[in-house]
Amino acid sequence: MIVVQDLHRHFGGFRAVDGASLEIAAGSITGLIGPNGAGKTTLFNVIAGRLPPTSGRVFMAGEDITGLPPHELFHKGLLRTFQIAHEFGSMTVRENLMMVPARQSGEVLWNAWFHPGRVRAEDRAIRDKADEVLEFLTISHLADQKAANISGGQKKLLELGRTMMVDAKIVFLDEVGAGVNRTLLNTIGDAIIRLNRERGYTFCVIEHDMDFIARLCDPVIVMAEGKVLAQGTVDEVRNDERVIEAYLGTGLKNKVVANG
Question: Boundaries of each ABC transporter domain copy (predicted)?
């Protein structure tokens, strides 16, 4: 689905992504882990078109998408969420979902004036879709609440729901568990697994909660210092000496081994 080849993103002399190469297979839930500052979010931002690469290429289903802006990638089915949810706080949860589909007839003044029936029919279909998404995510009870008033975990579910309002092919989830309680995190995990198994979504997930990663992800890719350090199952990367050292440092690693 996604192939990244020798990707670099530099900020002056700082190499946030430094020659990363990886593949995200269609139909997978791929985990992307690494210590803080490893380059994970920068990699997401380059793939998703929010930052241009310094060099390297990104392919989606064989098509070169390097440097395409987010709105073009959106129409190709590549979407991403953010560590801090970006909701429209003054709108209801349902309205936030209804905002997502592009090129709605009601956005054109001509249609509103001369084709009001078409606009109403389309609005009803989008509203029905939004209600279906809310039911899928088990948050129908929040439909009419202002998005600003729901919890952080519920906002993460809303962001996931927004990806369901369009024909998403691959979704990049950036720390979906940050600030989320365990119950809601399990609900989010359930939704991701169902979207993957029932609707064929491909996911790439940045997350520090290794229990969450272990439950959802295979394979897991480990980044450190802007590079891909290791890839494999959760157990394989947990036991990889390079990964232990990247997370703990040589001194701490030797202390853990000595005490173990």
Answer: 2-250
